[in-house]
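Structure tokens please, single chain.
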Amino acid sequence: MRRTPTSLTPVRRTLRHVGLATLLVVGGLAAAGTLPAAADSGTPTATEESASPGLLDAMRRDFGLTRAQAEARLAAEERATALEPTARRTAGAAYAGSWFDADSGKLTVAVTADASGATVRALRDAGTAVRTVEHSARRLDAAKARVDRLDAPAGVSGWHVDPAANSVVVDVVAGERADNDVQRFVDRAREAGPVTVRTVAAAPETFAAGTVGGDPYYTGNVRCSIGFSVHGGFVTAGHCGRAGAGVSGWDGSYIGTFQGSSFPDNDYAWVSVGSGWWTVPVVLGWGTVSDQLVRGSAEAPVGASICRSGSTTHWHCGTVLAKNETVNYSQGAVHQMTKTSVCAEPGDSGGSFISGDQAQGVTSGGWGNCSSGGQTWFQPVNEILNRYGLTLHTA
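Here you go.
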């Protein structure tokens, strides 16, 4: 990894072998992302520029879409992502959350009954669907904050605000709902505000793994995946290593050191890069899909499609299910997580979640696997950048 490649072809062959660790390895790789060519009829759209063929292929595989449907969904999600901050400001105190509806291709904005007619018209004129609900986002967030102060038993998987349900949703592991500790927790949670209880298949676990040869990076006997390049290093999951721990690459050579790490409470970290390694704004497809350039970190709304890259299971796609969820791992609760329907397996921890060409977060944990399915949580990347004063490396 210390040599400078002389041509792009051998670089890409090496990158596909080492997987996501190659976000850090070779000069000139920023040009390696494969993007669709402009249509013959004119200038390419933003979606055509941001969606690699590999990303579209992954969406076709995981969502059962045609290429045209995948392109249309990405375009609709791009519009919804851009519209969400404006919709929140327009709704003001009446804002009760928002989410992307894949069937209509629109951002749905929930507002309380005291929203003025002018506000509702402004939201609809902007292109959103509007739903009237009972509880404001402020009230739901306050209720969740009160639940966050409770000690959760192992039978409680986590909890989050669900804007579509207009409630704080508490997830209980199947078979544990009758447990006395779980019942006491649910009773206390309901005292905090509007709460709905749902059942999930299993408790969440982190996705670190023991050392296996040929994978992206190691700290001690733990293997994890690189998330996104930042100027000076990369971001990843906090449970993969403590501050001060050294990091080795797929080939055993020294990469750098964990400069900051937080787990539990949070699950994020950043690693400095040196010793002949450097950063590039690319999420790689491991030869399964084409490489994807990273152009920013605009946050995708609930309901939007999202894809994950990791050293064990490579590329998989799903949807954003919830934001600001508290996940109750056996090591302790982790806050402000985003839940997705994307699968993951041990070794994928720290890897990239991306929507179009926008970085979303780093893989934390989940339940299930990529054979039978499951759910996975990520720590939002913007929170990591703000916490450590980092700048995302973008194309």
